[in-house]
Amino acid sequence: MLFLLAAFVLSDWIIGTWDPMVTSRRFYKNDFTKTLFHHQWLDHGPVFFGNSAVTGAYIEEQSKSRLIEMGLSYGKLTDLKAILEQERFRMEGQLVIGIDVHTMIDSLETDPTYPWFKPWYQPYAYTYRDYFRDSGTEIVKQLYKGIVELNPSELLAYQPRWIDKELYFGQKPGDELRTKWADYDKRFGWMSQPDYKENLDALSWIIGYSQAHQLPLRVVWMPWNRGYQLPPYMPGLQQEVNRRLDAAGVPVLNLLTTYDPKYFHDLVHLSRQEGAPVFTKEVDAWLASLAKPSK
What we know:
Layout: H1 2-18, H2 20-23, H3 31-37, E1 44-50, H4 52-57, E2 68-71, H5 77-85, E3 90-99, H6 124-127, H7 129-148, H8 174-188, H9 197-212, E4 217-221, H10 234-247, E5 252-254, H11 275-291
Parallel strand pairs: 1-2, 1-3, 3-4, 4-5
Helix pairs in contact: 5-9, 9-10
């Protein structure tokens, strides 16, 4: 039994050191890993952090601000706090945070494969078991084709997993948007301050971290499709967040209800063709104005 336990621990350590969720294209990649991949594994620099609303709205290659787009699927401020606490990325120059209607909701499910969720004692193979199962099934099929069907070229062939983030093109029809709004309202419309307490605490921690590290912090309220009612909890949430930011002297750009519906793909994501270029230019201009010395 001791031998089996030692063999398991050793094999899991070897797999963890290899870290195929990061290093191998055979395996699924989360948005944090995709960010690093598309920046040649750079682990420091100025960042625009947020959820998929930031990914869809901020066009890094068109921006003059030279921010690394770190929009994470279902990303929250608690995720940013974990990244900073665990030193998984070193923010330098400035940190811009995009907050939309979902960024602060504590109960919103996120991607469990983000590395900061893995306890140190949890086996690597167990943590990512679903993705090992997915890639393992593919490997078994390859072995069958290569050995049984005598097709050796299949032994090393595999389908690289998608490495790009999801972008949002065109506009969804009105009936889909109404259905989505009703879903949002059912799931989140009843919420109040206790339902985003953890993310408010994370915001205060991030403010303190930025002050301690002399890291310029900026916040953008991400656009919401004003053709549909704003979630009822948002005015109270925005007021409390702005109170904390104002007390710390953090600049804020409020774009929550300023964009025409024609710029949106859905309720929370700007269209890549219409909305994202406008947003990127507006954020650039705002950040540039903050960088100018006061007269």
